[in-house]
Protein backbone atom coordinates (compact mmCIF):
# COMPACT_ATOMS: atom_id res chain seq x y z
CA UNK A 1 0.00 0.00 0.00
CA UNK A 2 1.44 3.38 -0.97
CA UNK A 3 0.87 6.54 1.02
CA UNK A 4 0.03 10.19 0.42
CA UNK A 5 -0.19 12.95 3.03
CA UNK A 6 -2.21 16.00 2.07
CA UNK A 7 -3.71 19.05 3.73
CA UNK A 8 -6.91 20.70 2.64
CA UNK A 9 -7.04 24.48 2.63
CA UNK A 10 -10.43 26.14 2.32
CA UNK A 11 -12.22 29.26 3.38
CA UNK A 12 -15.07 28.54 5.80
CA UNK A 13 -18.22 27.47 3.92
CA UNK A 14 -16.40 26.72 0.66
CA UNK A 15 -17.39 23.08 1.13
CA UNK A 16 -14.50 21.25 2.79
CA UNK A 17 -16.62 19.13 5.12
CA UNK A 18 -19.04 18.18 2.37
CA UNK A 19 -16.24 17.20 0.00
CA UNK A 20 -14.34 15.13 2.56
CA UNK A 21 -17.59 13.43 3.51
CA UNK A 22 -18.12 12.46 -0.14
CA UNK A 23 -14.52 11.24 -0.32
CA UNK A 24 -15.27 8.92 2.60
CA UNK A 25 -18.37 7.60 0.94
CA UNK A 26 -16.75 6.98 -2.42
CA UNK A 27 -13.51 5.40 -1.24
CA UNK A 28 -12.74 2.30 0.74
CA UNK A 29 -12.24 2.95 4.38
CA UNK A 30 -9.67 0.57 5.75
CA UNK A 31 -11.80 -1.83 7.71
CA UNK A 32 -15.48 -1.45 7.28
CA UNK A 33 -16.58 0.89 4.58
CA UNK A 34 -20.19 1.03 5.62
CA UNK A 35 -19.51 1.83 9.21
CA UNK A 36 -17.13 4.65 8.41
CA UNK A 37 -19.44 6.01 5.75
CA UNK A 38 -22.23 6.14 8.28
CA UNK A 39 -20.05 7.79 10.84
CA UNK A 40 -18.94 10.35 8.30
CA UNK A 41 -22.53 11.19 7.64
CA UNK A 42 -23.32 11.24 11.33
CA UNK A 43 -20.60 13.68 12.03
CA UNK A 44 -21.69 15.83 9.16
CA UNK A 45 -25.27 15.86 10.40
CA UNK A 46 -24.03 16.67 13.84
CA UNK A 47 -22.01 19.45 12.40
CA UNK A 48 -24.92 20.92 10.52
CA UNK A 49 -26.84 20.82 13.75
CA UNK A 50 -24.16 22.70 15.59
CA UNK A 51 -23.23 24.86 12.66
CA UNK A 52 -19.52 24.36 13.21
CA UNK A 53 -16.81 22.36 11.58
CA UNK A 54 -15.87 19.30 13.57
CA UNK A 55 -13.83 17.68 10.85
CA UNK A 56 -11.15 15.77 12.75
CA UNK A 57 -7.61 17.07 12.45
CA UNK A 58 -6.46 13.88 10.70
CA UNK A 59 -8.51 11.40 8.71
CA UNK A 60 -7.71 9.00 5.92
CA UNK A 61 -9.27 7.38 2.89
CA UNK A 62 -8.10 4.46 0.79
CA UNK A 63 -8.14 4.79 -2.99
CA UNK A 64 -7.14 1.69 -4.97
CA UNK A 65 -3.87 0.74 -3.25
CA UNK A 66 -3.06 4.13 -1.74
CA UNK A 67 -3.89 5.38 1.71
CA UNK A 68 -4.40 9.13 1.73
CA UNK A 69 -3.96 10.87 5.08
CA UNK A 70 -5.94 14.10 5.05
CA UNK A 71 -4.96 16.77 7.53
CA UNK A 72 -7.24 19.68 8.27
CA UNK A 73 -5.76 23.17 8.42
CA UNK A 74 -7.16 26.23 10.12
CA UNK A 75 -9.02 28.29 7.51
CA UNK A 76 -7.15 31.47 8.40
CA UNK A 77 -4.01 32.90 9.95
CA UNK A 78 -2.94 31.59 13.32
CA UNK A 79 -0.39 32.94 15.72
CA UNK A 80 1.26 29.88 17.17
CA UNK A 81 2.86 28.38 14.10
CA UNK A 82 0.19 25.66 13.89
CA UNK A 83 -0.27 26.16 10.16
CA UNK A 84 3.43 25.60 9.51
CA UNK A 85 3.55 22.58 11.77
CA UNK A 86 0.57 21.01 10.04
CA UNK A 87 1.90 21.77 6.58
CA UNK A 88 5.27 20.30 7.47
CA UNK A 89 3.60 16.89 7.86
CA UNK A 90 2.24 16.80 4.31
CA UNK A 91 3.67 16.63 0.80
CA UNK A 92 0.96 18.56 -1.00
CA UNK A 93 -2.19 20.59 -0.54
CA UNK A 94 -5.65 20.73 -2.03
CA UNK A 95 -6.94 24.29 -2.20
CA UNK A 96 -10.70 24.33 -2.32
CA UNK A 97 -12.31 27.47 -3.73
CA UNK A 98 -15.98 28.36 -4.09
CA UNK A 99 -16.76 28.95 -7.79
CA UNK A 100 -18.93 31.96 -6.97
CA UNK A 101 -16.77 33.61 -4.32
CA UNK A 102 -13.29 32.86 -5.58
CA UNK A 103 -10.31 32.75 -3.19
CA UNK A 104 -10.93 34.66 0.04
CA UNK A 105 -8.38 36.83 1.82
CA UNK A 106 -8.59 34.78 5.00
CA UNK A 107 -7.05 31.73 3.32
CA UNK A 108 -4.24 33.78 1.81
CA UNK A 109 -2.03 33.28 4.86
CA UNK A 110 -2.36 29.50 4.80
CA UNK A 111 -1.88 29.37 1.03
CA UNK A 112 1.20 31.53 1.28
CA UNK A 113 2.69 29.23 3.91
CA UNK A 114 2.03 26.19 1.71
CA UNK A 115 3.69 27.84 -1.28
CA UNK A 116 6.64 29.01 0.82
CA UNK A 117 7.18 25.42 1.98
CA UNK A 118 7.42 24.38 -1.67
CA UNK A 119 4.20 22.36 -1.65
CA UNK A 120 2.58 21.95 -5.05
CA UNK A 121 -1.13 22.65 -4.79
CA UNK A 122 -4.05 20.99 -6.50
CA UNK A 123 -6.85 23.49 -7.00
CA UNK A 124 -10.46 22.38 -6.74
CA UNK A 125 -12.98 24.97 -7.92
CA UNK A 126 -15.98 23.78 -5.94
CA UNK A 127 -19.76 24.31 -6.01
CA UNK A 128 -19.66 24.48 -9.80
CA UNK A 129 -23.34 23.46 -9.73
CA UNK A 130 -24.27 26.86 -8.31
CA UNK A 131 -26.18 29.02 -10.80
CA UNK A 132 -24.04 32.03 -9.90
CA UNK A 133 -20.81 30.04 -10.14
CA UNK A 134 -18.08 31.49 -12.38
CA UNK A 135 -15.53 28.69 -12.48
CA UNK A 136 -13.18 30.30 -14.98
CA UNK A 137 -13.08 33.57 -13.08
CA UNK A 138 -12.37 31.76 -9.79
CA UNK A 139 -9.62 29.77 -11.48
CA UNK A 140 -8.01 32.94 -12.81
CA UNK A 141 -8.18 34.58 -9.40
CA UNK A 142 -6.35 31.62 -7.89
CA UNK A 143 -3.62 32.00 -10.50
CA UNK A 144 -3.32 35.72 -9.73
CA UNK A 145 -3.21 35.00 -6.01
CA UNK A 146 -0.41 32.44 -6.44
CA UNK A 147 1.53 34.86 -8.63
CA UNK A 148 1.12 37.61 -6.03
CA UNK A 149 2.35 35.18 -3.37
CA UNK A 150 5.54 34.43 -5.33
CA UNK A 151 4.64 30.91 -6.35
CA UNK A 152 7.34 29.19 -8.39
CA UNK A 153 6.73 28.01 -11.96
CA UNK A 154 5.88 24.49 -10.89
CA UNK A 155 3.34 25.77 -8.37
CA UNK A 156 1.85 28.17 -10.93
CA UNK A 157 1.38 25.23 -13.26
CA UNK A 158 -1.16 23.78 -10.79
CA UNK A 159 -3.69 21.20 -11.95
CA UNK A 160 -7.32 22.25 -11.54
CA UNK A 161 -10.49 20.25 -11.09
CA UNK A 162 -14.03 21.56 -11.21
CA UNK A 163 -16.29 19.95 -8.66
CA UNK A 164 -19.54 19.76 -6.86
CA UNK A 165 -18.68 18.28 -3.50
CA UNK A 166 -22.35 18.21 -2.66
CA UNK A 167 -23.21 16.14 -5.73
CA UNK A 168 -20.03 14.09 -5.40
CA UNK A 169 -18.22 14.66 -8.69
CA UNK A 170 -15.09 16.33 -10.03
CA UNK A 171 -13.99 16.85 -13.64
CA UNK A 172 -10.85 18.09 -15.39
CA UNK A 173 -12.82 20.12 -17.85
CA UNK A 174 -16.36 21.44 -17.51
CA UNK A 175 -17.31 19.55 -20.67
CA UNK A 176 -16.35 16.19 -19.14
CA UNK A 177 -18.96 13.74 -17.95
CA UNK A 178 -19.87 14.41 -14.31
CA UNK A 179 -19.60 11.03 -12.63
CA UNK A 180 -17.82 10.77 -9.33
CA UNK A 181 -14.72 11.90 -7.42
CA UNK A 182 -12.31 9.47 -9.09
CA UNK A 183 -10.57 12.32 -10.99
CA UNK A 184 -9.76 13.90 -7.61
CA UNK A 185 -8.45 10.69 -6.05
CA UNK A 186 -6.40 9.89 -9.15
CA UNK A 187 -4.95 13.39 -9.27
CA UNK A 188 -3.95 13.27 -5.59
CA UNK A 189 -2.12 9.99 -6.15
CA UNK A 190 -0.49 11.24 -9.36
CA UNK A 191 0.38 14.82 -8.42
CA UNK A 192 1.24 14.69 -4.72
CA UNK A 193 4.69 13.18 -4.10
CA UNK A 194 5.33 10.11 -1.98
CA UNK A 195 6.10 11.22 1.62
CA UNK A 196 9.69 12.44 1.88
CA UNK A 197 10.71 9.82 4.50
CA UNK A 198 9.57 7.05 2.13
CA UNK A 199 11.36 8.66 -0.83
CA UNK A 200 14.51 9.02 1.24
CA UNK A 201 14.33 5.42 2.37
CA UNK A 202 14.62 6.11 6.07
CA UNK A 203 12.80 2.94 7.15
CA UNK A 204 15.90 1.23 8.56
CA UNK A 205 17.01 4.14 10.71
CA UNK A 206 16.03 4.40 14.40
CA UNK A 207 12.62 5.96 15.01
CA UNK A 208 12.27 9.74 15.02
CA UNK A 209 9.37 12.11 14.52
CA UNK A 210 8.60 15.75 15.12
CA UNK A 211 5.51 16.40 17.25
CA UNK A 212 3.30 18.73 15.22
CA UNK A 213 0.08 18.77 17.21
CA UNK A 214 -0.67 18.21 20.87
CA UNK A 215 -3.96 17.49 22.55
CA UNK A 216 -5.11 16.06 25.83
CA UNK A 217 -7.36 13.07 26.23
CA UNK A 218 -9.23 12.32 29.42
CA UNK A 219 -8.05 8.71 29.49
CA UNK A 220 -4.85 8.63 27.49
CA UNK A 221 -3.35 11.91 28.67
CA UNK A 222 -1.15 13.81 26.28
CA UNK A 223 -1.39 12.83 22.63
CA UNK A 224 1.26 13.99 20.17
CA UNK A 225 0.62 13.81 16.45
CA UNK A 226 3.24 14.02 13.75
CA UNK A 227 4.76 12.41 10.70
CA UNK A 228 7.33 9.68 11.31
CA UNK A 229 10.55 10.99 9.75
CA UNK A 230 12.51 7.78 10.07
CA UNK A 231 12.24 4.20 11.29
CA UNK A 232 9.36 2.41 12.96
CA UNK A 233 7.49 3.33 16.12
CA UNK A 234 6.14 0.54 18.31
CA UNK A 235 3.65 0.66 21.14
CA UNK A 236 5.23 -0.34 24.45
CA UNK A 237 8.72 0.87 23.61
CA UNK A 238 10.70 3.61 25.33
CA UNK A 239 11.43 6.83 23.51
CA UNK A 240 13.01 10.10 24.42
CA UNK A 241 11.73 13.57 23.73
CA UNK A 242 14.15 16.39 22.89
CA UNK A 243 13.36 20.05 22.48
CA UNK A 244 14.44 21.94 19.37
CA UNK A 245 17.89 22.55 20.88
CA UNK A 246 18.39 18.84 21.38
CA UNK A 247 17.97 19.05 25.15
CA UNK A 248 16.31 16.02 26.77
CA UNK A 249 12.74 16.78 27.84
CA UNK A 250 11.79 13.34 29.09
CA UNK A 251 12.17 9.66 28.46
CA UNK A 252 9.05 7.54 28.61
CA UNK A 253 7.10 4.56 27.41
CA UNK A 254 4.71 4.81 24.50
CA UNK A 255 1.38 3.46 25.72
CA UNK A 256 -0.45 3.69 22.39
CA UNK A 257 0.30 4.36 18.75
CA UNK A 258 -2.68 5.47 16.68
CA UNK A 259 -3.07 5.43 12.94
CA UNK A 260 -5.82 7.36 11.14
CA UNK A 261 -8.30 5.12 9.39
CA UNK A 262 -11.35 6.81 8.00
CA UNK A 263 -12.73 9.06 10.70
CA UNK A 264 -11.34 6.87 13.43
CA UNK A 265 -8.12 6.86 15.32
CA UNK A 266 -7.14 3.18 15.50
CA UNK A 267 -4.55 1.75 17.91
CA UNK A 268 -1.83 -0.12 16.02
CA UNK A 269 1.18 -2.12 17.21
CA UNK A 270 3.58 -0.26 14.93
CA UNK A 271 3.77 2.40 12.24
CA UNK A 272 6.42 3.29 9.69
CA UNK A 273 8.38 6.19 8.23
CA UNK A 274 6.18 8.58 6.27
CA UNK A 275 2.95 7.84 8.10
CA UNK A 276 1.16 10.33 10.34
CA UNK A 277 0.49 8.93 13.80
CA UNK A 278 -0.70 9.98 17.23
CA UNK A 279 1.33 8.86 20.21
CA UNK A 280 0.21 8.58 23.82
CA UNK A 281 2.27 7.89 26.92
CA UNK A 282 4.59 10.86 27.24
CA UNK A 283 3.91 13.40 29.95
CA UNK A 284 5.73 16.63 29.24
CA UNK A 285 6.79 16.49 25.57
CA UNK A 286 5.09 19.11 23.45
CA UNK A 287 4.85 20.50 19.91
CA UNK A 288 8.13 21.00 18.06
CA UNK A 289 9.82 18.37 20.25
CA UNK A 290 11.48 15.41 18.59
CA UNK A 291 10.29 11.99 19.79
CA UNK A 292 12.94 9.41 19.04
CA UNK A 293 14.58 6.14 19.84
CA UNK A 294 16.95 6.73 22.81
CA UNK A 295 19.95 6.16 20.53
CA UNK A 296 19.09 9.18 18.37
CA UNK A 297 21.31 12.10 19.37
CA UNK A 298 20.05 15.10 17.46
CA UNK A 299 16.63 16.73 17.36
CA UNK A 300 15.00 16.95 13.95
CA UNK A 301 15.03 20.39 12.38
CA UNK A 302 11.81 22.19 13.27
CA UNK A 303 10.18 25.24 11.78
CA UNK A 304 10.52 28.55 13.55
CA UNK A 305 7.39 29.84 15.20
CA UNK A 306 5.97 32.88 13.49
CA UNK A 307 5.81 36.16 15.33
CA UNK A 308 2.17 37.35 15.32
CA UNK A 309 3.15 40.44 13.32
CA UNK A 310 3.62 38.29 10.23
CA UNK A 311 -0.06 37.31 10.25
CA UNK A 312 -2.00 38.81 7.39
CA UNK A 313 -5.68 39.38 6.80
P1 LIG B 1 -16.90 24.03 5.15
O1 LIG B 1 -17.15 25.15 6.11
O2 LIG B 1 -15.84 24.41 4.16
O3 LIG B 1 -16.61 22.72 5.79
O4 LIG B 1 -18.23 23.93 4.25
P2 LIG B 1 -19.42 22.87 4.29
O5 LIG B 1 -19.01 21.58 3.67
O6 LIG B 1 -19.99 22.81 5.65
O7 LIG B 1 -20.43 23.56 3.28
C1 LIG B 1 -20.92 24.87 3.49
C2 LIG B 1 -22.26 25.03 2.80
O8 LIG B 1 -22.10 24.90 1.39
C3 LIG B 1 -23.30 23.99 3.19
O9 LIG B 1 -24.56 24.60 3.24
C4 LIG B 1 -23.23 22.97 2.07
O10 LIG B 1 -24.43 22.29 1.88
C5 LIG B 1 -22.92 23.86 0.88
N1 LIG B 1 -22.16 23.14 -0.15
C6 LIG B 1 -21.08 22.34 0.03
N2 LIG B 1 -20.65 21.85 -1.14
C7 LIG B 1 -21.47 22.34 -2.10
C8 LIG B 1 -21.54 22.18 -3.53
O11 LIG B 1 -20.75 21.48 -4.15
N3 LIG B 1 -22.54 22.86 -4.15
C9 LIG B 1 -23.43 23.65 -3.51
N4 LIG B 1 -24.36 24.27 -4.22
N5 LIG B 1 -23.40 23.81 -2.17
C10 LIG B 1 -22.45 23.17 -1.47
From TrEMBL:
The keyword GTP-binding applies. One of its GO terms (molecular function) is GTP binding. Keywords: GTP-binding, Nucleotide-binding. GO terms for cellular component: cytosol; ribonucleoprotein complex. Residues 1-196 form the Tr-type G domain. The keyword GTP-binding applies. This is Tr-type G domain-containing protein. The chain holds residues 1 to 313 of 422 of the full protein.
Amino acid sequence: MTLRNIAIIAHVDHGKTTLVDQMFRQSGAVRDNQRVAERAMDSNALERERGITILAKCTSVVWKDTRINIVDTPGHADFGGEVERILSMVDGVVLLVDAAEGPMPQTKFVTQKALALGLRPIVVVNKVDKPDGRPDGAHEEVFDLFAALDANDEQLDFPTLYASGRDGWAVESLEDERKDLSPLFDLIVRHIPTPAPVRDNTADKPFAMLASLMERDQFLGRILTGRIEQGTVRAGTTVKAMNRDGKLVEQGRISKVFSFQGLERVAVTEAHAGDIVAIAGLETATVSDTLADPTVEDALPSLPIDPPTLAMT
